[in-house]
Amino acid sequence: MPIGTTLTKFLLEEQRRYPDSTGNFTSLFSDLVIAGKILSREVNRAGLADILGATGDKNTHGEEVQKLDEFANSAIIRTMEHGGHLSAMASEEMEDIIKVDSKYPKGNYLLLFDPLDGSSNIDVNISVGTIFSIIKCDNGCDVSTKDFLQAGAEQVCAGYILYGSSTMLVYTTGHGVHGFTLDPSVGEFLLSHENIRIPEKGKIYSINEGNSRHWLPGTSMYIEKLKANEKGPSARYVGSLVADFHRNLLKGGIFLYPADKKSKNGKLRLLYEANPLSFIVEQAGGKSTTGDKRILDIVPDELHQRVPLIIGSKLDVEEAESFWKYQEAR
Ligand code: AHM
Ligand code: MG
User: Fold this and answer.
1) What is the DSSP string of 133-191?
2) Cα 266 to middle of ligand 1, angstroms
3) Which of 178, 217, 221, 248 could form a disulfide with 253 if both were Cys (CB 3.0 to 4.6 A apart)?
């Protein structure tokens, strides 16, 4: 489709390619896009508004919650709950699932999201993002936590909104990965990156080197190998997963948040972070693994499960994997 096509038109065209489509998904996705526009506006004016700063509360994981996180969380819930297509939602910021209130109609989709990932970067004006994943529930409307515990391979849609120098929405429904840039003058996401393919090999590696004292042997050996090569990759690490992932998706590269001696499952969350980005990277021709296992094959045990994540260009991820047999100090 021509560059500049609106996301609304793009979604309708996609829907028409499937004659059996009811339009439910398109309508659900359109609500999500509205939430993205609202968050984009708020993130962009965070420096001006009094909304900035930590509330002092801790989230489910014992981390400090910042005000904009809370805003993002409730804005998504408010925007999504009345559309009639969801039965329940799960947010990285909330311990339990959020069932759609009985005053609204319900549908067969479940939404999982990280409302504002990289939130420690908000008050220093560094890019942050929203990550989302949509799955189906077979139980109709009587949903419980276990309906959310599906392998990532079951996702019907995944994406993220990056609040960067411009706001971008990148998503997949299993038919390639497409990127749209928000034109603030018309308030629409316009097609800017159709059918994104991640280079097979990249020139960037992204890992928090500050954790190197906790690394397992395989991680240290792999990073040493990258550094020993004179023509080896450059390091780039923003500390906002969406920003690090997006850069590597477009330019090629590898992002690692591995298990280490301190965090035996890494830091990132399977359902809100690893699964959606893994669906995207695979659709773009890349790879995603824990080091020993494809991320999308993992059947979760719990909602807020953490998982080691190695994700990016196919050949780079495969090279990293070849070092994971040395991790045994676990
Ligand atoms: P958050 O969900 O609390 O914002 O944490 C996730 C973030 C990711 O965006 C980023 O990749 C990672 O934490 C960085 O962690 P670290 O500061 O340990 O390198
Ligand atoms: Mg997060």
Assistant:
1) EEEE-TTTT---GGGG---GGG-SEEEEEEESSSEEEEEESSS-EEEEEEETTTTEEEE
2) 11
3) 248
